[in-house]
Amino acid sequence: MTDASTVPSQGPVTRGSVVRVGAATVVSALCGYAVLYLAARDLAPAGFSVFAVFWGAFGLLAGASNGLLQESTREVRQALRAPTADGPRIHPMWVAALVGVLAAVAVTASAPLWSGHVFADARWLSVGLLSAGIAGFCMHATLLGVLAGANGWSQYGALIMGDAIGRVSVALATFLVGWQLVGYLWATVAGSIAWLVVLLASPTARAAVALATPGTMVTFLRGASHSIAAAGASAILVMGFPVLLKATSADLGATGGVVILAVTLTRAPLLVPLTAMQGNLIAHFVDQRERRLRSLIAPVAALAVLGAAAVLVAGLAGPWLLRTAFGPEYQAGGALLAWFTFAAVAIALLTLTGAAAVAAARHRAYAAGWVIATAASVLLLLLPLPLETRTVVALLCGPLVGIAVHVVALARAPGA
Question: Which of 30, 162, 240, 368 is the most buried (most CB within 10 A)?
Fold first, then answer.
């Protein structure tokens, strides 16, 4: 039995919880910037593109595992709001362990088919780190979801910071000691054990993990499969974009390194907080389930204001910041950086509508929105245009299609 006194109290998502997660997100974003800065300063643009592809490959798989975060948040939140005594029950963390092992095996077994095309250097080390890292991150994502569902926001924030601090610590050691590319590969997956540290250190986290949700492993996985598919599609556009860009380009070279860094830097101020606050968003939309569309108004308005400011800063100060922070090899115009930021706003809007769709249990529509958006972006990346132009077109137009799918589904949902 779980000691009820150690389980966080239930209730609406409060401003305090948003502040705590927001503070953790700021730390996470700064650490992410620090890793990219150290890698870009330590490696030439061509070498940075090799690191960025591995960073993107891990981000793609880790992003897909966020489907476990979304489903466990929804299941735990609903179970605590409307407890039921009858029927089978499961522990989401056990499901995460199974999915993590299967994911690691799948990566390792399939590596001979794709690793030679994706990893230009340190091929088998990259495969090994990718396998171990994704197994750990499945546990990480599910623990985040369980904590979000149970209002364990302090532990939620600690887990986000633990992941980020683990990465930047290894990256800093790599920069100082001179481990070059190999060290940055290790840094990419270093935060995947943060879930274990938080679980061992926090009685509240252990109590939240002990909570069981109604249903069987099959029913949980059925719902999670749609979330994982959608999260995987979103991860292709967000963290996995360098892999997608490489797959649709003959040779990235130095130009590819500049484009990847510029896209990463311009989207991080919007997408890093949104990704970290998925638990807050889904919990908010579950609490507002009688107002499906109206509950989107405040988050969308806040995003519009922040996005407009980000576009302005990127267009005016972006080129100088890029050259000053990363060196004269990294050159990009203000207009290009502003368009990259505008495209990031579109992906952020798609993230918001997707979270609302998950909370409304519109799993198929959620997955369809992201999959269609990703497919459209891939097709647009194949256009016979310069690398910079087709990157903007793909990242801006693809998400608009997915947003339409989500909004239509929410409009048809009960309580819309």
Answer: 240
Q: If you search the block for the tokens 């609406």, which residue do you land on?
A: 12
Question: Residue 214: beta bridge partners?
Answer: 89
- In this prediction the pTM is 0.73
Q: In terms of Cα–Cα distance, which of 182, 350, 205, 373 is closest to 274? A: 350
Nearest to 20 by CA among 116, 199, 159, 121: 159
What are the percentages of helix, strand and coil residues in the chain, rounded to 5?
A: 80, 0, 15
Neighbours of 135 (CB within 10 A): 23
Q: Is 255 exposed, middle or buried (0-12, 13-18, 19+ CB in 10 A)?
A: middle
CA dihedral 156, 224, 243, 311 (to 10 degrees): -60
In total, the chain counts a number of residues equal to 416
Q: CA 131 to CA 305: how far, in whole Å?
A: 39
Angstrom CA distances, 70 to 18, 34, 44, 104, 275, stand at 17, 28, 38, 21, 11
Burial letters 206-241, b for 16+ CB under 10 A, else e: bbbbebebbbeeeebbebbebbbbbbbbbbbbbbbb
Q: Are 252 and 385 spatial neighbours (Cβ–Cβ below 8 Å)?
A: no
At 227, list the tokens.
Answer: 């979330």
Pair 104, 138: CB distance under 8 Å? no
Give me the tens of pLDDT residue by residue for the chain, a chain 416 residues long.
Answer: 344 444 444 555 556 666 777 788 788 888 888 998 899 888 877 778 788 888 888 988 888 888 888 888 888 887 877 666 577 888 899 999 999 999 999 999 999 998 887 787 888 899 999 999 999 999 999 999 999 888 888 899 899 999 999 999 999 999 999 888 899 999 999 999 999 999 999 998 999 888 888 888 888 888 778 778 877 777 777 777 777 777 777 666 677 778 888 888 888 788 877 877 777 787 778 777 667 778 888 889 989 999 999 999 999 998 998 888 887 888 888 999 999 999 999 999 998 898 888 778 787 888 889 889 989 998 998 888 888 888 899 999 999 999 999 999 888 766 55
